[in-house]
Amino acid sequence: MRTGKVEIETEKAGNYTVVRLRGYVHVENSPAVRKVLQRLVQKRTPGIVVSLEGTHHMDASGLATLLECSEAMRRHGGKLLVVGLDTQVADAFSLAQLQDSLRIFKTEAEALEGISEQEAGSQGPGRSAGTAEGKDGSAPTAQRSS
Fold this sequence. Notes:
The protein is an alpha/beta fold.
């Protein structure tokens, strides 16, 4: 089991909240991450941008936390976006096949820009053209497994 701490920082960015995670997200500390995200969901925050730029490891409990929060956000019409995957975390997302379930951007700026474009109605309810990217910098595929 991975031991290490996670630092959680939140910041308002317009109608959205950026949640920055740094360190190691694992079974021992993912409940703290879940608590922060659930509080934002319960407040009906229109959008959450989860920055993993400083996250060096995320186990299945951390991945499940993000997926659960994303689903809860969708139920009330909100959005959860993930940014800044390092190679190891991106590999975990790939193994869990989450790259098509979560909206992933390279940077906070790209995610917030994509949100602004969608809110302006430029792309409708789908992904913003040219802003959502997979771990290799390419646009994610639109395929979903049934």
